[in-house]
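Why do we care about 3D structure at all? Because function follows from shape, and shape follows, mostly, from sequence. That is the central idea of this module. The next example makes it concrete: a single protein chain, its amino acid sequence, and then its structure expressed as tokens.
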Amino acid sequence: MNTSIKISPSILACDFSKIGKEVEALEKAGADYIHVDVMDGHFVPNLTIGPDVIKKIRPFSKKIFDVHLMISPVDNYIEQFANAGADIITFHPEATKDTGATIELIKKFKKKVGISLKPKSEIDLIKDYMHKIDLILIMSVEPGFGGQKFMPEVLPKLKELKKIIDKQKYKIDLEIDGGINFENSKAAKNAGANILVSGSTIFNENNGDLEKNINLLREN
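And the structure:
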């Protein structure tokens, strides 16, 4: 088993009528993280879940809750998500007036810090902060909706970030999210990603065999 690759299933694709049980099932199936997409209908054109839902599902799993905030202004909500049970809080630099201050705010609540780059967002937005963060999330679709098609044009950005991380010896995880499936997961890993987020593939392929799908994504 390739233990260096972590799989973070996105609960955006689960059955929301039994979300706690779905989270429990993902843990049993071997998920490394639980990926929670938070959208506000303002920063991105969709609404998903808030901190109260995270609080409710937190007891169903001991896994790391990998919470991606697609909300603006993001600082107003960090405390709520931290208290609800997020372990990693990832935000977009475009969603804050002061990226450095947002990083410090997340750290104040003793959470790991992630920064996400949309497909057209430049590396320059985060270069000056890489020594302070734990994770970079590269979006391989435009954020806002699940089930979109993977955009291979983001892979050079991933490769460039991997080079910087290796050269500077930063301890940063490289995560990719958006249309990840059995066909493109290898390209994402080859470009430097060590955490793969996947929703539709994990929940829908092979008749919803979560364990099989998680293992296939990890090993492909």
